[in-house]
Write a structure and sequence with these properties.
The protein is of the alpha/beta class. It has one domain: P-loop containing nucleotide triphosphate hydrolases (Rossmann fold, 3-Layer(aba) Sandwich), CATH 3.40.50. The protein has 11 helices and 5 strands; from the N terminus they run E-H-E-H-H-H-E-H-E-H-H-H-H-H-E-H. It has a 5-stranded parallel beta sheet, sandwiched between helices. Helix 1 packs across helix 11. The longest helix is centred in the last third of the chain and has 17 residues. Bound molecules: shikimate-3-phosphate (S3P).
Length: 186
Amino acid sequence: MNNVRMSVRQKSIVLIGFMGVGKTTIGELVAKKLYRSFIDVDQEIEKDFGMTIPEIFEQHGEAFFRDYEKKKTCALAEQKLKIVSIGGGAFLQPEIRESCLRNCIVFYLDVSWDEWKERLNILIDSRPVLQSRNIEEIEELFYKRQDAYSINHSKLTVNQRSAEEVADFIVDSLKHAWDMYEPMND
Ligand code: S3P
């Protein structure tokens, strides 16, 4: 897979990881710290349809959502200088994975199962993928998805860290990487 020839400073930053890991909160903070705009792909999809994600799942089904998610995420991943949070299931689609890895810098926000399961109650109402599964099935999904998430440019474990700490880590590591490259003129 060839990387798009673009200065590393111009690339958008994409946050991936399981539902509820904090992609949106952390992404907003990173965007503020880097003076970039933040895009939450699920929020963009909700705007496009004038419906919430659970409503889209209910009215159109998951296959329809995944197809739209693929088009939307790939299009947004081609923009420069953005901080983008993508849906927890998006990175399982090969086209989305390839587009994000080619065009952007991909950070995987990891969390342990023990830490994550404490968040289930606050997530369940807004996550249709969780509603159709019992706790054992959710745990299976959690571990199964780690294979796809493991293909990234940088991974960090969120666990006990605050969103602010994680955002600072991302910003510091990006600034460090940016210092290693001369900006290109393209
Ligand atoms: C999904 C995650 C959600 C949303 C949809 C499906 C998933 O996004 O895209 O409910 O399959 O993991 P978040 O990761 O932002 O919760």
